């Protein structure tokens, strides 16, 4: 059994030892530079652990020995699922390992957007001191609509309900279009915690913004492309969106002239919601569990598209 860590990520010493006991565990200090280097690294590998490397159709197609790809993240939109499935390659992901970190960051963005913290901080650092210029809104008794109700979405709801006395509603992959419409129409704050797939791509579009309440607060710690950014920009300009907090964008890294940077009522963080010490450890530990389960013949955390086939 050959286990290859395709690109650099933190595997803790105790987990390195466990992986080495499960097979020939190979790591690399740098990300692969091109397709040829990816294929060279996975040659003869049974299990590939992938952190950030794009695995498009042509790369997956030429993986000759790989039986399991572990996407070291909750999402897996940077691997060609259809090609892997066609070749009989299982894909596992790592749900829940970053749930607390992303949920806390989500709440932080909701607070920051609702209280205009970006503008207040920037202007204060420039020497402006104006206590009445940044009037915000309270979260207590507001309706929070969560789009995507997995580990992260549920934890966001718990914090919002228990910590701020917000009224929480949600939609998930089993919800209807009517359910989504109701959420959009009634929520004061909307949190996007959905993965990116064919159903969710661009789902928060111009039509969705038209259904939202006036002065809605919108936060996205799911995937950037769930939101149609041109529609978001239009909604901010019109005043429909009171403020937005974004940890993910449709293009990462974004162009320097991205119009979203020009709004004082938009706070953007560089896809860092997951990034805590605790998440690192949880992920390292979960990868060992996934590899061990595969070796024992009982794969876990196989992605939905494959587990339902």
What does this structure look like?
- With 309 residues, this protein is of the alpha/beta class.
- The protein folds into two domains: 2-97 and 277-307, NAD(P)-binding Rossmann-like Domain (Rossmann fold, 3-Layer(aba) Sandwich); 99-268, NAD(P)-binding Rossmann-like Domain (Rossmann fold).
- It contains twelve helices and eleven strands.
- The strands form two sheets. Strands 7-6-8-9-10-11 form a six-stranded parallel β-sheet, with helices on both faces. A five-stranded parallel β-sheet has the order 2-1-3-4-5, with helices on both faces.
- α4 (81-87) links the parallel β4 (68-71) and β5 (90-92).
- α1 runs parallel beside α11 and α5 (99-114) packs across α7.
- The protein is elongated and about 65 Å long.
- The two termini are 26 Å apart.
- 39% of the residues are buried.
- The mean pLDDT is 96.
Number of strands: 11
- The succession of helices and strands, N to C, reads EHEHEHEHEHHEHEHEHEHEEHH
The CATH class of the largest domain:
Alpha Beta
Count of runs of 4 or more consecutive helical residues: 12
Structural category: alpha/beta
The profile of the biggest β sheet is: 6 strands, parallel
In the predicted model, the low-confidence regions spanning at least 5 consecutive residues are: none
Looking at this structure, what is the CATH superfamily of the largest domain?
A: NAD(P)-binding Rossmann-like Domain
Radius of gyration (Å): 21 Å
Number of domains: 2
CATH hierarchy: architecture of the largest domain: 3-Layer(aba) Sandwich
Determine the mean pLDDT: 96
Give me the CATH fold name of the largest domain.
Rossmann fold
Give me the side-by-side strand order of the main sheet: 7-6-8-9-10-11
